[in-house]
User: What shape does this take?
Amino acid sequence: NAGVTQTPKFRVLKTGQSMTLLCAQDMNHEYMYWYRQDPGMGLRLIHYSVGEGTTAKGEVPDGYNVSRLKKQNFLLGLESAAPSQTSVYFCASSGTGELFFGEGSRLTVL
Amino acid sequence: AQTVTQSQPEMSVQEAETVTLSCTYDTSESNYYLFWYKQPPSRQMILVIRQEAYKQQNATENRFSVNFQKAAKSFSLKISDSQLGDTAMYFCAFYRAFGNEKLTFGTGTRLTIIP
Assistant: This one.
């Protein structure tokens, strides 16, 4: 069982470049989330979705966009990457109150 | 908005001893869940234990148990007979049960088990 899969696992970008992180889940969950993890700050919610075609802002949405065109996929986009977006990004999905996490994606912006 | 506070950034304990990690939260909700997640060096987020707010009985999972004090908004994790594999970051998290479901995390406690 794949669960929640994130791609890519690692990426290095230059300031101003764009990229998309893909999250895929095979558990038919309605809810999907993108978090970022920074030292000393825990995990902070960027954006989330409560169903196909819906998205909502979380705690730290600035500089990111998301889309949920298919129920199983949740995409996180950086249009113009900044060094402050260097972080580890986690995708998660939820069906009944428990979140299942992907393995994380380490993004470095130079 | 909900907030979760973990006041112990780092802890260490000898192998086989018992350790308690603290967590407090602030909410006006009555229906919610509380979780402890473990993050080992592999970076994977692993669910350790879950507590439903409506249940008075404290959750237990093998060597892991919680002390849930709803009125005090406290949710501590006790690890008994600690093992080297318990070395990890531990995150306390709050999940609102109905409407606008999302998980709010504390800042984490780095636990080191000393051989």
